[in-house]
Amino acid sequence: MNDFSLSLQVAGDVVIMRPKGYVDNLGAEQLEVASSEALGKGMRKLVVNFSETRFINSVGVSILISVIQRSRESAGKLCFTNVKKVHEEVFDLLGLTEHVKVFSEEGEAIHYLRRGRT
Amino acid sequence: MQESRPHTETLPGREEELQRLYRRCLAAGSPAAESLLLAGDLGMGKTALLRQLGLQLFWKQERVVPFRYSVNSALLEMLDFSRDYLRAFLRQRLAFDERDQALLRREDVSLTELAGRAESMGHAWAGEIARRVLRPAEDPLELFTAVLQAPASSASATGKPVAVLVDDAAALAGLNRAGRVHADALALFSGPAGDLNTVHILADRAALVRESALPVLAETELQPLLPADAGRVFAAMLPPGAASDSIPASLLGHLAGNPLYLRQVASAVKRGAGEEDFWSAYYEEIVNGRLHRILAAEFKRFFPAETERRHALEVIRRVYASGASSPLPWPVQVFVEEKLSPAAVHGLVISGFVCGGFGGYRPPEDRVLRDFINLLFEREITRRAPGEILQRALAGRTGADPLCRAWEWTLPLEPRAELVAAESLQQIGRNLQVPEETIGQLQMAMIEACINAIEHTKGGDGRMHVSLKTFPDRWEVAVESAGLAFVQAETGEPMTGIETREGAPRGQGIRLMKRFADAVRFEPGSRGTRVVLVKNLSVSAHPAKEDMAHRE
User: Fold this and answer.
1) Residue A82 near chain B (CB below 8 Å)
2) What is the ipTM of this complex?
3) I need a labelling partner for B372 at 20 to 30 A (CA). Which of A43, B65, B237, B506 fits?
C-alpha cells in the first residue's frame, strides 16, 4: 500500500515540500530525508505544505519534531502551511507549533521567509 | 444449647485480607494491639469479610472474644443505640463463653434477660452497665460513652480481650439526642479503640470513612478482586447448567472485581450458553433486578427527597455525558444555580456516583454505576418502562438498536491497514452528513488506536477488528485485538507509551485518543483488548465550512 508521495519545488532560496497522503513513519521519513538534503545543500528556508496531506499519526509527528530540530540546528527556517484544523490541533497538543510558524497559504510562508518577518 | 460448628463460608480472593485482619484481632490484649478503619467501595465485601472474620474468631480460637455489630440507621437515637449495642455485645459475649451458636443468632433476647444471665455467670460488670442503661438516670452521652467501653470493661474484668467489628460505622455520624444530631459522638470511639485490650475494626465506604468524624486510626482499603479471583467468584455463583467456561471476559472486566456485582449478575444468569446470555443477565440485574434495588437504595440514601433525587440524577448524567477521559471543570456555582442543597452537593461526591470535588467532576471508573445511572435516568426522567429500557440497553450493546447502524472491518496487522477504516469512516460520515471536523477528529483517534493494536498485538488471530456503531447522538469506534500487553492487568489502564521511534516522546497516541474522542475506554474483549472511542455528536454542529487553519 503506497499512500504517500512527496513533491519538491525549489523557488529561489525556498524549498517547498508537499507531502501527499498519509504522514506516518514512512511518509515522515521521506520528508526528513528531503529536508536534511536541502539543509545539507545550504537551503535554509523550508516550507511544508500540507494541503494534500489527508492523515497523520503520532509516529509521523514524532519524526516531524526531528525535522524541526534538524532545521534549528542548521539555522534554518521552517514553516508549515495549509494545515487542516484537526492536524493543527495535533501539532498544538504535541508542542510543534511552539517551534514552527504556521500559515494558511504557501505564498504567505514564502513571503515571510524572504522578508524575514510577517 | 450448644450447636455444632457451622460450615465456614469461603471468600475467594479475600483470603489474605481475612488472615491479616484475623492476626490483627488476635493481637488484642498485647502491646501490638491496633484498631483499624476498613474502607471499601460499595459491594467490595466489607460486610462479608467482617462476618467471616467474626465466625473465624468465634470457632478457631478461645482467647479473643469477637463482637460484630452493624450500625442500624433506624436506631440512632443515643439511648436506643446504647441499648442495642450493649444487648448485642452481651449476647455475643455470653455466646462465645458457651459456644452457643443459637444465642449468637437470637435477635429476640432482651437486655434484661442477658444481664441476668451474665450476672449468674459471674459477670458483675455486665449487670452494672445494663442497669444504668435500663434505668437511665444520667446524661445519654455519658451512658453512650460507658456502653462503648463495655468491651474494654469486659476485657479487664475477665482477662479476655475483645475484637469489636463495627459495620456501616460512618452511619454513627447521625447519632442524635432527641432529634439533635451529635456529630462528635463518633469520635468517642477513640477511647475504646485506643484500649490495648480491645481491637476495633470500623468499616464503611471509603468516601464516608474519610468524610466522617471517625477517630483517627490506621486505615486499609479493600481493593477489587483480581481477575482470576473474580472469575472464581462468578463461576461459583452460576446456576447449574450455565457454562462457566463461556463467561465473557468483557463482562468480567465490566464488573471490575466487585464481589457484589459478580455475585448478583452470576446468580441472575439463566442459561449461560453464550456471551449474550451473560450480558442479558447483567442488564436485567441493573434495570430491574436485585442489584438495581441495592443501587437504587444507595442512591436514595444520599438523596432522600424525590425532587432532589431527580435533580441529582440529571446533574450526574450531565457529568457522565462530559466523557470519562478528563475531569469536567465545573465551578460550584453551577450547583448553586441548579438549586441543589449543600447536602445534596455533598452527597453527590461522597455517594461515589461522581468523582472529584468542587471545580472538577468526572464519572467514576465504576462502569456498573455509570450504566445504572444512565438506565435510572431513562426510568425516572424519561419515564420509560423497565421492559423497554432493558430492550434498548441490550439492543444498544449488540448494535440491534433500530437507531444504531453498525460496520465492521477485519484488518491485517500491517502498516497502513488503519487507512482502510479511516477512509471508510470518512465516507460513512459524508453519507450521514456528519461534520467533517468531527469525522477528522474521530479518524485521528481511530488511527492511533489501530497503530496501538498493530504495535502491541501478540498472538491471537493476527488481526485487528475495527467496528463502528453510529447512533443519533454519538459514534462509537472499537478496535480490538490480542494486544493484552498494553493493558496493565491490575488497573485496566494502558501502558503509558507507544514506542514511536528511538528518543521520541512516548505515549502520545493515547494522549491523542483522549484529545479527539469524548470518552476512551480500555476494556477486555472476547479477542483480547478493546479500545472504545466515543465521539458525541453535537446537535447544533454544522458541517465545517472552513477546514484550514488561519494562523500566523
Assistant:
1) yes
2) 0.93
3) B237
